[in-house]
Write a structure and sequence with these properties.
The protein is mainly beta. It has a domain of 49 residues. Helices cover 5% and strands 32% of the residues. A hairpin with a 2-residue loop joins strand 1 and strand 2. The protein is elongated and about 50 Å long. It starts with 8 loop residues before the first helix and ends in an 8-residue tail after the last strand.
Length: 76
């Protein structure tokens, strides 16, 4: 791959090999999603993994939204 840019390589590739944050997969209301725990009671949605297409239109399922972790059975 060739990149034609005036940006210095340090700025271009910064964060490229950074370790991923602690995420886990949970199932809420039949939707399998990847979340990042904020505290022991709630998590932030990173992305939806397995769900019907209509679920993407629901603002409650938007990445960045918070979901409760209490009452979930754990990792899917």
């Amino acid at each position: 791959m060739t990149l034609y840019t005036v940006m210095p390589p340090e700025q271009l590739w910064s964060g490229m090999w950074k370790e991923a944050e602690d995420t886990r997969e949970i199932k809420i209301n039949g939707l399998l999603m990847q979340v990042r725990p904020v505290n022991e009671n709630e998590a932030v949605i990173v992305r939806l993994l397995d769900c019907p297409l209509q679920a993407y239109l629901n603002p409650a399922n938007m990445p960045g939204s918070t979901v409760p972790l209490s009452g979930n059975a754990g990792p899917a």
